[in-house]
Backbone:
């Protein structure tokens, strides 16, 4: 009897049902259900193939029962379908994961006849298979996340040198431009950068006259966006236009962030003698042109360091008033040319540091691990640092135990929480709840992330490769 032929005919009918479900999965089940259905599809196909093969008599009935258990979900209602899928899929994913781990450990223990490993090497390999999640997270942090001290020192030194060169250049070319002391900021300075020391921020503070300018919160503007602030020129009847240096960048009575960025692009990026600066710093420095941002690329000049990652330095014009920091970033405020971006980064990092200092917690450690996981995983690469930071801040309001021994529990909890936010396509900012930090993600990106994280629920190891 031709089992392959009969299996193919049955498989075609089932494939039509599965294709229909997958095409409408997002409407019926949402993001999480669609991800589960994708996993279930793979499980169903494997079970059908397994049922069609010649097997021992006592195992055939069991395999067919499992197949019908999953296929019976096809005719169920949407609610029953989702609940059933969760149970069946997680059961099979867990079983497959355990089997893969067992096979891996068995393969490590069985050596080829030609080469016999040393007893101590075999012992170390076996230990890798029995590491707890807590141990694996610590191992992942030390091997993949944390930066080498010499790498951090080199990146900070280059950034400071560039800062000195640009500040000297602006003072000599534009002595009347009211600027504050430039400094280096961002994750490189705050010990939150992971994997590679490959980017830094050069903060260029603009000095405004308090009697001539007023910062207007985003909620009070016509834009009504909490992160899109505006800077209004005031007292024009007493101090006419031209009394302030920055009046030349007014658009409609407001200081234009886009006009300021264009000015710095022409005054620094297109004018500075970068070959001369490269010779002074013993590295290759060049501007990254063609975008709405001010960015420099720095590469080592010596051949021995040719394999090193380039360092990118973003030049950020900023306005500071109290604890408010506004940045000129048209890529974040487009198409509004007058809007300035309210940076929540200083508030978020300060809050994390305060919480960890109060209870000797592992929130910053958790943030760095999550950032590395997302940076190294193609499916999660579009998830930026801001949503991860706010995820931990929200979770800290509900969970008080953040000691380092609970790192594994909090890691799994962060994955579960993130799945819920992706399913709803909403993650509110901790300090500005009206802001949805996931609004910039496409549906395909959300689906890919949801699928990856659902798989990680039963096997967190797939995120720590």
Residues:
């Amino acid at each position: 009897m031709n089992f392959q032929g009969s299996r193919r005919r049955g498989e075609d009918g089932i494939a039509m049902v599965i294709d229909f479900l997958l095409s409408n999965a997002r409407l019926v089940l949402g993001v999480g259900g669609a991800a589960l259905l994708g996993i279930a599809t793979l499980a169903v196909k494997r079970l059908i193939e397994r049922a069609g093969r010649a097997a021992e008599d006592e195992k055939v009935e069991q395999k067919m029962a499992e197949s019908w258990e999953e296929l019976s979900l096809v005719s169920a209602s949407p609610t029953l379908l989702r609940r059933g899928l969760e149970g069946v899929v997680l059961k099979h994913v867990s079983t497959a994961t355990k089997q893969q781990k067992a096979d891996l450990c068995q393969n490590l223990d069985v050596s080829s006849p030609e080469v016999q490993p040393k007893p101590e090497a075999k012992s170390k390999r076996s230990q890798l298979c029995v590491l707890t999640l807590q141990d694996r997270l610590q191992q992942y942090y030390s091997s993949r996340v944390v930066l080498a001290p010499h790498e951090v020192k080199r990146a900070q030194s280059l950034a400071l040198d560039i800062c000195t060169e640009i500040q000297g250049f602006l003072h000599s070319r534009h002595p009347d431009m009211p600027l504050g002391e430039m400094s280096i900021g961002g994750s490189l300075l705050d010990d939150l950068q992971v994997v590679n020391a490959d980017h830094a921020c050069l903060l260029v503070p603009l000095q405004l006259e308090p009697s001539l300018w007023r910062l207007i919160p985003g909620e009070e503007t016509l834009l009504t966006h909490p992160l899109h602030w505006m800077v209004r020129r005031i007292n024009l009847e007493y101090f006419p236009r031209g009394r302030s240096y920055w009046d030349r960048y007014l658009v409609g009575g407001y200081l234009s962030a886009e006009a300021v960025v264009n000015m710095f692009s022409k005054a620094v990026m297109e004018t500075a003698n970068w070959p001369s600066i490269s010779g002074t710093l013993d590295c290759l420095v060049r501007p990254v042109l063609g975008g709405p941002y001010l960015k420099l690329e720095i590469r080592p000049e010596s051949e021995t360091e040719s394999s090193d990652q380039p360092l990118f330095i973003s030049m950020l014009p900023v306005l500071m008033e109290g604890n408010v920091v506004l940045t000129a970033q048209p890529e974040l405020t487009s198409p509004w040319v007058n809007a300035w971006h309210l940076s929540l980064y200083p508030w978020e990092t300060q809050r994390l540091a305060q919480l960890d200092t109060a209870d000797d917690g592992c929130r910053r450690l958790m943030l760095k691990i999550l950032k590395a996981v997302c940076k190294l995983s193609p499916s999660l690469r579009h998830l930026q640092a801001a949503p991860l930071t706010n995820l931990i801040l929200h979770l800290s309001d509900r969970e008080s135990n953040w000691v380092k021994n609970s790192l594994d529990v909090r890691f799994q909890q962060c994955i579960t929480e993130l799945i819920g936010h992706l399913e709803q396509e909403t993650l509110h900012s901790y300090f500005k709840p009206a802001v949805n930090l996931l609004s910039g993600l496409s549906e395909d990106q959300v689906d890919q992330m949801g699928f990856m994280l659902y798989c990680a629920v039963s096997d967190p190891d797939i995120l720590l490769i």
Summary: Residues 78-109 form the longest helix (32 residues).
